[in-house]
Amino acid sequence: MPTKDDGSDKEKCFELFKNIGLDEGTARNTVANKKVTTNLITVINEAGVTGGCERTVGNLLYTVATKYPGNALPNRPTLLQYILTSKVKTAAQLDAALAFLAATGPDNLDLKKFEEACGVGIEVSTEDIQNAVNEVFEENKEKILELRYRINVGELLGHVRKRLPWADAKVTKGLVDAKLVELLGPKTAADDEKPSKKKKEKPAKVEEKVAPIAAPEKPPEEELNPFLIFPNPEENFKVHTDVHFSNGSILRCCNTKELLDKHLKATGGKVLTRFPPEPNGYLHIGHAKAMFIDFGLAKDRNGGCYLRYDDTNPEAEKKEYIDHIEEIVRWMGWEPFKITYTSDYFQELYELAVELIKRGHAYVDHQTPDEIKEYREKKLNSPWRDRPISESLKLFEDMRRGLIEEGKATLRMKQDMQSDNYNMFDLIAYRIKFTPHPHAGDKWCIYPSYDYAHCIVDSLENVTHSLCTLEFETRRASYYWLLHSLGIYQPYVWEYSRLNVSNTVMSKRKLNRLVTEKWVDGWDDPRLMTLAGLRRRGMTPTSINAFVRGIGITRSDGTLISVERLEYHVREELNKTAPRTMVVLNPLKVVITNLEANSVIEVDAKKWPDAQADDPSALYKIPFSNVVYIERSDFRMQDSKDYYGLAPGKSVILRLVQVILADDNETILEIRAEYDPSKKTKPKGVLHWVSQPSPGVDPLKMEVRLFERLFLSENPAELDNWLGDLNPNSKVIIPGAYGVSSLKDAKVGDTFQFERLGYFVVDKDSTAEKLVFNRTVTLKGTYGKGGK
């Protein structure tokens, strides 16, 4: 029989194992096995994660503790460092690493061979896996169509694994399953029948060779359907979430037939989703992913998506944010099915709270916030938890009538204070705030909490799919507990990973500091990842949605997506849509001495590389005179072999005009040059330029703003002094750039490709006297060429 101390030690081990992300069942099974417990504690101490770590890391550490080869113990610290730094981050990589270490034994590790053996540095994206799945299905299409759901899925997965040995196994399995449904449709009764055995027959000889049918082109990532993973509304009778209580009972969450039939009758079987932002800040690129999933699923299934303002906190909401959100949602290309507010349902929410009390599932509590925190930490019930139902009903009515002071009472849900899930620790349903509500007025002095309101409003609005980010996964238990306790319809809940982009921050608190402390120029500063900032920078909703779609709807949390991937999609679009023009940022005057001083000719320039000369709409006029301006960086006093610009004694071609220039070496403030009408020289350098529109008149002057990464580090949010990581050169203003005269009519929001410089957009700070351009992206990036 175990001693009291033994029990205490086991509980400590159990909590330690949960802290590294093991689920409760695995943690308890591990504690019951002394050998595995000893090994895992040693690995945790060796890795230095006694304070906890991410679940993915913890699962890998568990595998190390259970499978590490005993002959290679000296090399285990090295493997742990690879895991902690996410160089080894998948089960496939770890299996390969363990096999390599078993073969190496205690010998010194050849890190280069080790990294090659376990795929260190190889990134496999969801679209890479999808492309491989498409190839495998195309190669095995005939066999799949013949066998249908009797096909050996393991064999298909093996073919994908051969192509991408480091792909995430769960993602691969999900995409293969989805592809089967896409190709074959839903399972039929015939698919479930056992195949009858047939005698083998010799194949008949083929007299003539049949010409092979050309395989269809593989669809690009933007055409793949990421929404196949979600069930249809009529399937929402299945149990997909279990809520475990501390007394050993289990709530298996599902709708009754009556509830589901009532829901389907109300909706006509349509998919209904919701995008529920809080109106207390500006939307950022993470919200673009949420919009893509919420609105995208509804659009894919011919349903609708509510734009619902989660306005339960009367002190945080502002009309500025409400107007911004609606405008940005539509700018992103989404049309709400209905625009609603949580406050629209305050009366229904109040009535359901009364019903919850009557059913014995809620009580009025008088603990202070500090006392609530202390009792939760100790897993203790509130002293008012078991007060009579009648007493709680009266006190809740007193709260509603404003008879109790703010902070003196709350309504709490009677959930499970001894649960392993802290989101079941009797969450607050209502609190007192003597603050008028921006939308509901001064009718209420009690307001519902998010944990109480959002699931009920989902149910009241007949939402079919309640989709949110993974940090809400632990709230599933509370979500379903409340709907079950009230006996109302339960939507299908599914969580996806947050979108984390490099070289920026996206928490509302950090963004608010950047704006309010004037580190940036407002919520729409082009350096921010707010959607207003991205729009002002010249990024389009099409490219942002393509970026989000390419990432996919995954549950692999913690992945940091390089901002270069977003810029890649922006370039892809702007390359097709932004007309070409010429601007010189740092002008250097060039006087062509053998051209007539007072003559100006107009030359045709192409707006697009493939523009036809006989299409006037694809051309624009550029004045050309004997005074032109080139980039200061395109001239040097000293020439070199790898330099293609202008230098004393060296020729170049002016872009479009084919004039040969040769410097007379007088001064770099003004170059005097000649052109060679016979074109005897064959220069390699081709420069862009801007000319005086008429004799003695300067070209169109403009301000150009060059933007770089806002932060120097890829993940500044991890830093204690994250403000110290701000890039001092994230914004460079060039006040005296010259542009061709055709730009004078450009309007705010117009985009252009400045030849050799990048893609630019007209900024809202432009005036009739001065145009202002923001650089959207440079002409080239590294994504797709070895970049992340």
UniProtKB/TrEMBL annotation:
InterPro entries: aa-tRNA-synth_I_CS, Gln-tRNA-synth, Gln-tRNA-synth_Ib_RNA-bd_2, Gln-tRNA-synth_Ib_RNA-bd_N, Gln-tRNA-synth_Ib_RNA-bd_N_1, Gln-tRNA-synth_Ib_RNA-bd_N_2, Gln/Glu-tRNA_Ligase, Glu/Gln-tRNA-synth. PROSITE patterns: AA_TRNA_LIGASE_I (PS00178). Residues 189-209 are annotated as: Disordered. Pfam families: tRNA-synt_1c, tRNA-synt_1c_C, tRNA-synt_1c_C2, tRNA_synt_1c_R1, tRNA_synt_1c_R2. Residues 12-169, 173-248 form the Glutaminyl-tRNA synthetase class Ib non-specific RNA-binding domain. Residues 270-575 form the Glutamyl/glutaminyl-tRNA synthetase class Ib catalytic domain. Residues 686-763 form the tRNA synthetases class I (E and Q) anti-codon binding domain. Residues 578-676 form the Glutamyl/glutaminyl-tRNA synthetase class Ib anti-codon binding domain. Keywords: Aminoacyl-tRNA synthetase, ATP-binding, Ligase, Nucleotide-binding, Protein biosynthesis. CDD domains: GlnRS_core (cd00807). Its EC number is 6.1.1.18. It comes from the Eukaryota. It catalyses: tRNA(Gln) + L-glutamine + ATP = L-glutaminyl-tRNA(Gln) + AMP + diphosphate. NCBIfam families: glnS. PANTHER family: GLUTAMINE--TRNA LIGASE (PTHR43097:SF4), GLUTAMINE-TRNA LIGASE (PTHR43097). Belongs to the class-I aminoacyl-tRNA synthetase family. This is glutamine--tRNA ligase. It comes from Stylosanthes scabra. The lineage of its organism: Eukaryota, Viridiplantae, Streptophyta, Embryophyta, Tracheophyta.
